[in-house]
């Protein structure tokens, strides 16, 4: 058994509130923050101090979770720290979870530690195997692994029900817990308020033997839901309401997705979570700020169980950080579920969803999401990160690695009237300007081309340098052309633009620069282009804070979050699912992993080249 200087019942003091200004964080949603390197994390100095003090010397790890008796059989723990990512399997993971994953797995990786994946499934309702599988897949996809030193380190809190129960009996026997028969309303009324102390339950001092008998009867199913609860006996006058004899077990006749009908009493989260951490030998238990007020109970419980010989010291310590909030996004499983159930989006992996699977389908890479998480600080002050920071992370990740190509999203026919019918010439462009070794791509120049409708005007406004009658522009990687005229249909829509090419101006030839032009437009050969369906995705919400206050977040949905167009892609574009390109001038696109085939490409716009929101 190892010991440390932590005294029983004493909350850990090592939780400083950092006063460091945080790059990339804005209280004001309209501030466009941008930073390029890893942001501050107030936990690093704490971990470094723990390691410098050799706080975990002598800590043992049996290779699996368990109480002191089991861990004492183990070997000295080779993991320098242990963290965990503990999702409740009741929904799909979202961007907020990605942050927690990056923090927990990231810190473990940085400091020679191990991070466990723990399915926190102590609540029988709403939890499901479907979510368990999806969570594991999402964590893996993000690039993290819970396996280490031959241990799988994927754990289920429900596997600890026996120990949690055993500990409850131990607490009763030690006079530190009792079975209360007050009604839920009485318990609430007697809890007191922020300004008034609570009132002791008439059952508070019943003999331990009586509580023990009742707890066993509860377990055997002899008492209906809501009739009895087990409470920790702490202090009904504590200024922290969470210490006023918190409920630790309740009767709940419910089927659990893993333990079936083995249990009809279930531990409360606040009781279960510290025990889960301790059984797994977690050193730094990192959670979000709303658990700060629970920390004294966390410490009380573990210290008492350690004093009773059930757990080893050093005990895990809880640290809280502010949840990741992002403008234009909701990160609440309940709200995301509502979007799916009510059909506002096409499922959990709709490319507009801030779920990890939605982001993946949209074309975000794991590296882009990790980059975004690394650029947002870990602090104790609430803030909202600008959505543009997420988009910028995608650009920064994709720019150096993504093949260039051309697409025309809103096509208008351009006919080069002096270019012979049937003729075609090969034009060349770099596959990736950042990677010259990747070489060039080739595509034909012909008499009939598709250009963007927006690249032509009947009458040019000021500073419009693209096509209009009489103007010269360069067809990128091809020739300089001069616009001659255009045709219209009965409704006045432009149907075709006509131009003449200047043969000596071909890109890559000595004559290319003989004529200077201000406009440079992209095009594809009409006879060779690949047709594609392209979804132009935008922010799902039009309001920067859709979930603030009492706002109806559904009323904040962006009606233009998805526009679908029929586009033409550069010939040779092989749209196998998941392929990603930068279409010149337009942005980053990916072939939809579900709907796309090379024969019938379906593309998603990941992000535009520049932040043009609201422009
Ligand atoms: P939700 O409110 O969406 O249901 P949750 O906190 O209830 O989220 P859990 O499954 O309990 O979801 O979360 C697993 C872990 O992820 C927890 O440690 C939780 O603190 C963390 N987490 C969840 N949302 C965020 C967020 N927005 N920012 C940082 N961490 C988060
Ligand atoms: Mg939760």
Question: What structural class should be given to the helix and strand makeup?
Answer: alpha/beta
Mean pLDDT figure? 92
Under CATH, the topology of the largest domain can be stated as Rossmann fold
Biggest sheet details: 7 strands, mixed
Strand order of the largest sheet: 12-25-26-27-23-24-13
Ligand set? adenosine-5'-triphosphate, magnesium ion
How much helix is in the residues? Answer: 10-25%
* Global shape: elongated
CATH class of the largest domain: Alpha Beta
Radius of gyration: 31 Å
Describe the structure.
This protein has 615 residues and is an alpha/beta fold. It folds into four domains: 43-160 and 271-326, Rossmann fold, CATH 3.40.50; 162-269, Glutamyl-tRNA Synthetase, domain 3; 333-403 and 532-607, Orthogonal Bundle (Glutamyl-tRNA Synthetase, domain 2); 407-522, Ribosomal Protein L25, Chain P. The protein is 23% helix and 21% strand. The chain is built from 13 helices and 27 strands. The chain has helices at 43-52, 68-71, 95-110, 129-141, 161-173, 184-189, 208-219, 269-279, 295-307, 333-341, 356-362, 366-375, 387-401; strands at 60-61, 75-76, 82-85, 114-119, 154-156, 177-180, 229-232, 247-251, 265-267, 284-288, 317-321, 403-405, 407-408, 411-416, 425-430, 440-445, 448-452, 472-475, 480-488, 494-501, 519-521, 523-525, 530-537, 562-569, 580-583, 587-591, 602-608. The strands form seven sheets. A seven-stranded mixed beta sheet has the order 12-25-26-27-23-24-13, with helices on one face. A seven-stranded mixed beta sheet has the order 21-18-19-20-14-17-22, with no helix packed on it. Helix 8 (269-279) crosses helix 9 (295-307). The longest helix is centred in the first third of the chain and has 16 residues, at 95-110. 43% of the residues are buried. The protein binds adenosine-5'-triphosphate and magnesium ion (MG). The site of adenosine-5'-triphosphate has 14 residues, from helix 3 and strand 10.
């Amino acid at each position: 058994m190892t010991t440390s200087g932590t005294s029983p019942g004493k909350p850990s003091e090592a939780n400083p509130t950092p006063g460091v200004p945080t790059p990339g964080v804005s209280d004001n949603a309209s501030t466009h923050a941008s930073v390029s390197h890893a942001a501050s994390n107030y936990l690093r100095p704490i971990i470094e101090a723990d390691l410098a003090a050799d706080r975990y010397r002598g800590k043992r790890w049996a290779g699996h979770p368990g109480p002191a008796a089991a861990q004492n059989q183990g070997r000295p723990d080779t993991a320098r720290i242990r963290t965990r990512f503990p999702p409740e399997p009741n929904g799909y993971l979202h961007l907020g979870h990605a942050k927690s994953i990056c923090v927990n797995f990231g810190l473990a990786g940085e400091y020679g530690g191990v991070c466990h994946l723990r399915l926190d499934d102590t609540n029988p309702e709403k939890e499901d195997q479907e979510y368990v599988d999806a969570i594991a897949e999402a964590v893996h996809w993000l690039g993290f692994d819970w396996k280490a030193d031959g241990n799988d380190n994927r754990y289920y809190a429900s596997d600890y029900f026996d120990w949690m129960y055993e500990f409850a009996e131990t607490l009763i026997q030690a006079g530190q817990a009792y079975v209360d028969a007050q009604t839920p309303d009485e318990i609430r009324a007697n809890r007191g308020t922020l300004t008034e102390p609570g009132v002791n339950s008439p059952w508070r001092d019943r003999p331990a033997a009586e509580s023990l008998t009742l707890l066993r009867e509860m377990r055997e199913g002899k008492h209906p839901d809501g009739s009895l609860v087990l409470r920790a006996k702490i202090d009904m006058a504590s200024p922290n309401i969470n210490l006023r004899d918190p409920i630790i077990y309740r009767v709940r006749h419910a089927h659990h997705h893993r333990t079936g009908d083995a249990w009809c009493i279930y531990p409360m989260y606040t009781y279960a979570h510290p025990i889960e951490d301790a059984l797994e030998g977690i050193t730094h238990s990192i959670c979000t700020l709303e658990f700060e007020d629970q920390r004294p109970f966390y410490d009380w419980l573990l210290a008492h169980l350690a004093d009773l010989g059930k757990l080893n010291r050093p005990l895990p310590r809880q640290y809280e950080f502010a949840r990741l909030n992002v403008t234009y996004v909701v990160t609440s499983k309940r709200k995301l579920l509502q979007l799916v159930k009510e059909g506002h989006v096409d499922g959990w992996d709709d490319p507009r969803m801030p779920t990890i699977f939605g982001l993946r389908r949209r074309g975000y890479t794991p590296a882009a999401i990790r980059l975004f998480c690394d650029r947002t600080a870990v602090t104790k002050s609430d803030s909202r990160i600008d959505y543009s920071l997420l988009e910028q992370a995608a650009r920064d990740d994709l720019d150096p690695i993504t093949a260039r190509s051309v697409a025309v999203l809103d096509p208008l026919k351009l006919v080069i009237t002096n270019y012979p019918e049937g003729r075609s010439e090969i034009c060349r462009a770099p596959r990736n300007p950042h990677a010259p070794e990747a070489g060039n791509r080739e595509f034909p120049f012909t008499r009939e081309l598709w250009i963007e409708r927006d690249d032509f005007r009947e009458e040019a406004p000021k500073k419009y340098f693209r096509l209009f009658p009489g103007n010269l522009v360069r067809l990128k990687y091809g020739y300089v052309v001069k616009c001659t005229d255009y045709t219209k249909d009965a409704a006045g829509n432009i149907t075709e633009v006509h131009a003449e090419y200047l043969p000596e101006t071909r890109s890559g030839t000595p004559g290319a620069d003989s004529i200077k032009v201000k406009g440079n437009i992209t095009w594809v050969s009409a006879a060779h282009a690949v047709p594609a369906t392209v979804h132009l995705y935008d922010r799902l919400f039009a309001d920067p804070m859709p979930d603030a206050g009492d706002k109806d977040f559904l009323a904040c949905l962006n009606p233009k979050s998805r526009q679908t167009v029929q586009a033409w892609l550069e010939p040779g574009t092989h749209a196998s699912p998941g392929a990603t390109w930068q279409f010149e001038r337009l942005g980053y696109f990916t072939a939809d992993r579900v709907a796309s085939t090379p024969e019938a490409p379906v593309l998603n716009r990941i992000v535009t080249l520049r932040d043009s929101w609201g422009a």
